[in-house]
Specification:
seven-stranded mixed β-sheet, Aspartate Aminotransferase, domain 2, about 15% strand, three-stranded antiparallel β-sheet, 2 domains
Length: about 400
């Protein structure tokens, strides 16, 4: 039978999800750099600093030892114990080591957590704007993302009023504090109120805490302290400056532990063994890491002062993380085209808001201030000059 007569092969609908637009911006920036043109990177949520020195030393030592085989699906015991100690030292919260699960980045944690907690057809709510992979991962596994349209009046965070306005029940609620892309945070009282609402309504709370440690005047509160049924996700990527090491963790409630372990065994086997061995040292590198936070704070201060001079005068509070979320509705109706124009005319790469809010993101852009102070100062100078 000639090849052209074969019937078409099936392609799963699971992959029919929107792209992660920040990756598209990164590709455009890379093409510009390949052409010999300068790019100032404000698009990606990645620290410009590398992994802490202690982690690098542990990794070098690991390369000379026998640590590169598979590990237990839940992670190596020394790392799970170190994470549990981190909760005691950082938050004064007793997290049992047995409930700590090491994952392949926070991305792996969300996949495992969502699969363990929710069934196809379930509904999971989150603020809009929010990290796009929440929506896309849920959609890919047949769970319906329910977006809560938040704005400055809500500080871009979920509220009880928004939840109670939903016409149909939900089975899950995702919160992020500090949040991506806005940097806004929930106070202890606000997180407790949301947690109590979830408990009263049989709703699983999922707390994204990957930007904990990156705060400016307000301490982040962990849901592990407030809600024993919460699924808590964290990562070595942001505070610990280890994005490429692909290592995260979860604090998993008892009722999900067996499901998470079975899923991890089948889907991932284990997180990278060298990354796990090296990450144990990360918790001894706080002094170095706090130096990065001081730099982010200076970058944040500069942008909050200088961006309004360039016409970016409607900014989310940026309590934490390393992002400025700017309302550019006075400048454009098309944030994607606007970001392309900024890149072409100034060499500055930034992210369109449509990544984070498909309905209203065409009026917003996100700037990451995780880079060097020199880069951030030059970005401010160029944007002010560009406006004029």
């Amino acid at each position: 039978m000639p090849p052209h007569s074969f019937p078409p092969l099936k392609v799963s609908k699971r992959g029919a999800i929107p792209p992660f637009f920040v990756m598209e911006v990164m590709r455009a920036a890379a093409e510009r750099e390949a052409a010999g043109l300068e790019v100032l990177h404000m698009e990606v949520g990645q620290p410009s600093s590398g992994a802490p020195k202690g982690v690098l030393e542990a990794a070098h030592a690991g390369l000379d030892s026998d640590v590169l085989g598979y590990t237990a699906a839940l992670g190596i015991p020394p790392l799970r114990a170190a994470i549990a100690r981190w909760y005691r030292d950082r938050y004064s919260v007793d997290v049992p080591e047995r409930q700590v699960v090491v994952t392949t980045g926070s991305s792996g944690a969300f996949q495992l957590g969502f699969l363990a907690a929710f069934d196809p057809g379930d509904r999971v709510a989150m603020a809009s704007p929010s990290y796009p992979a929440y929506r896309h991962t849920l959609t890919a596994i047949g769970v319906e993302p329910v977006e809560l349209p938040t704005g400055p009046e809500h500080r871009f965070q979920p509220t009880i009023e928004l939840l109670e306005a939903l016409e149909e029940p939900i089975q899950g609620l995702i919160v992020a504090s500090p949040a991506n892309p806005t940097g806004t945070m929930l106070s202890r009282a606000e997180l407790t109120e949301l947690s109590d609402w979830c408990a009263a309504n049989g709703v699983r709370l999922v707390s994204d805490e990957i930007y904990h440690g990156l705060t400016y005047g307000q301490e982040a509160v962990t849901a592990a302290e407030i809600n024993p049924g919460a699924l808590v996700v964290n990562s070595f990527s942001k505070y610990f400056s280890m994005t490429g090491w692909r290592l995260g963790w979860m604090v998993v409630p008892e009722d999900l532990m067996r499901s998470v372990e079975s899923l991890a065994q089948n889907l991932f086997i284990s997180a990278p063994s060298l990354s796990q061995a090296a990450a144990v040292a990360a918790f001894d590198c706080v002094e170095e890491l706090e130096g990065h936070i001081a730099r982010y704070a200076r970058n944040r201060k500069l942008l909050l002062e200088e961006l309004p001079k360039a016409g970016f005068d409607k900014l989310a509070p940026a309590d934490g993380a390393f992002y400025i979320y700017a309302d550019v509705s006075a400048m454009t109706d098309d944030s994607e085209a606007f970001c392309r124009r900024i890149l072409a005319e100034t060499g500055i790469a930034c992210t369109p808001g449509i990544d984070f809010d498909p309905a209203r993101g065409h009026h917003f852009v996100r700037f990451s201030f995780a880079g060097s102070e020199e880069t951030i100062a030059e970005v401010a100078r160029r944007l002010i000059a560009w406006k004029r």
